[in-house]
Specification:
Layout: E1 17-21, H1 27-39, E2 55-59, H2 70-73, E3 75-79, E4 86-90, H3 91-97, H4 99-108, H5 115-121, E5 124-126, E6 140-141
Parallel strand pairs: 1-2, 1-6, 2-5
Antiparallel strand pairs: 3-4
Helix pairs in contact: 1-4, 3-4
Length: about 140
C-alpha cells in the first residue's frame, strides 16, 4: 500500500496579511522575501499550480536602499511599439517619481511569468509613505 500525497484545495487556503517596512532594506533582498510570501513558499501547503500565498503591504517604499551606484546606472526600459519608441529611466529618477513602482517591478521579476504570477502580484500593496489603508485586515510584521 502506498501513501497518498496531500494536495491543498483552493477552498482550504488560509490567507494572512503581512506588513513590511522598506526603510533601509536592500531592494533585491526585500523583493525576494516578498516574492516567497506571495507565492506561498513559506507555507507547508505550498503548491506550484495554486495561488496559496499571502497578502503583503509594503510601507516606506521611498526609503529603500540600493547598493553601489545603481541609482545612476540601473535602467528601466520600455518600448511603445512605434519607431523610436524606446524610453529609458534610471532607478534614481523612478525612485523620485514613483517609488512604489520600483518595488513592484523588482517583485514582479521574481514571480512566474504566467497568469498565476499576475494573480500573485495583485496581492502586493506598496505605499511610498508610512501610512496604509489596510488596518482592518490587521497585518502582522513579516519576519
Amino acid at each position: 500500500m502506498t501513501a497518498k500525497t496531500y494536495t491543498v484545495r483552493e477552498s482550504e487556503i488560509e490567507r494572512r496579511w503581512y506588513v513590511v517596512d522598506a526603510t533601509d532594506e536592500t531592494l533585491g533582498r526585500l523583493a525576494s522575501r516578498i516574492a516567497r510570501v506571495l507565492e506561498g513558499k513559506n507555507k507547508p501547503t505550498y503548491s506550484p499550480t495554486l495561488d496559496s500565498g499571502d497578502h503583503v503591504v509594503v510601507v516606506n517604499a521611498g526609503k529603500i536602499a540600493v547598493t553601489s551606484d545603481k541609482k545612476e546606472t540601473k535602467l528601466y526600459m520600455r518600448h511603445s511599439g512605434y519607431p523610436h519608441g524606446l524610453k529609458s529611466e534610471t532607478l534614481g529618477h523612478l525612485l523620485e517619481r514613483r517609488p512604489e513602482e520600483v518595488i513592484r517591478r523588482a517583485v514582479k521579476g521574481m514571480l512566474p511569468r504566467n497568469r498565476l504570477g499576475a494573480q500573485q502580484l495583485t496581492k502586493l500593496k506598496v505605499y511610498a509613505g508610512p501610512e496604509h489603508p489596510h488596518q482592518a485586515q490587521r497585518p502582522e510584521p513579516l519576519a
